[in-house]
Amino acid sequence: MNELVAEYFGTLVLILMGVGVTANNGLKKTYASGSGWVLVSFGWGLGVFLGVIIAGPYSGAHINPAVSVGLAFAGKFPWHKVPGYILAQLLGAMSGALLAWWHFIDHYKATKEPGSILGTFCTGPAIKHNLHNLVSEVIGTFVLIFVVLFISGAKVEGPSVEQVTVGLGSIGALPVALLVVAIGLSLGGTTGYAINPARDLGPRLVHALVPIPSKGDSNWSYAWIPVIGPLIGAFLAAGIYLIVL
Question: How many angstroms separate the CA atoms of 48 and 245, rounded?
């Protein structure tokens, strides 16, 4: 499978399961309605698990622009491949969110709270403070990228970085899934832990496009934080990794 196709389908399944678990928890009249944060954290972690299984052998399973940028900055991934990976991840995220919306379409119609509907698609602050919200996303993504870089090892084995698939798949599906669960359980309660620009931006675009009664606006004034924050966190993690190595 082509590496960009792998990134597309890996991210699609990640977002389908992630938006799915937030919809299962947040929408009216589902059997899991109101199950809580632990369900959401494990749902997202297992979504990453499935995405890594799909994409790992073919693309390294970045399934996150922050991972692609962080690995490139650390010298583990060629920069010229980053734009293609990010485009595939964004399209995959939009496709996954669209499928999740269709799956839960009757429950979206039954839910009248715009905030609950928006929260199934994208992240938002528990307490709005742009600087503090940005720092939360930076810290969460820093933990993700920093740990991934150390688990995957200091060196890339092989004749060149071009010939090696490096990413979340380099450390195995289960460890990275548990890492995402840990971030969600420990750090996710402030902003909903996007830690992935495609994870937030793709579903937010879908929220703006699909017809849902009572959905309200897509909170575009906040949308830059879960995009810029993870990218800053990725650069900081890669930079510190290179310094302490």
Answer: 27
**pLDDT band at residue 65 using 50, 70 and 90 as cut-offs:** very high
pLDDT of residue 155: 44
pLDDT at res. 153: 53
The Cα-based distances of 65 to 33, 34, 39, 61, 114 in angstroms read 31, 31, 25, 11, 28
CATH architecture of 3-244: Up-down Bundle (1.20)
Nearest partner of 138 among 240, 233, 238, judged by Cα: 233
Q: Give Dmax over CA atoms of the chain in angstroms.
A: 57
Residue ranges covered by each domain of the chain: 3-244
Q: How far apart, in whole angstroms, are the C-alpha atoms of residue 195 and residue 125?
A: 13
On the question of pLDDT at 221 being above 60, the answer is yes
Q: How far apart are CA 161 and CA 77, in angstroms?
A: 6
Radius of gyration of the chain (CA): 17
**pLDDT > 70: what percent of the chain?**
93
Cα–Cα separations (whole angstroms), residue 181 to 34, 56, 210: 19, 19, 29
Sign of CA pseudo-dihedral 85, 90, 96, 99: negative
Q: What is the 3-state secondary structure (H, E, C) of 79-133?
A: HHHHHHHHHHHHHHHHHHHHHHHHHCHHHHHHCCCHHHHHHHHCCCCCCCCHHHH
- Specify the residue for token string 């310094």: 243
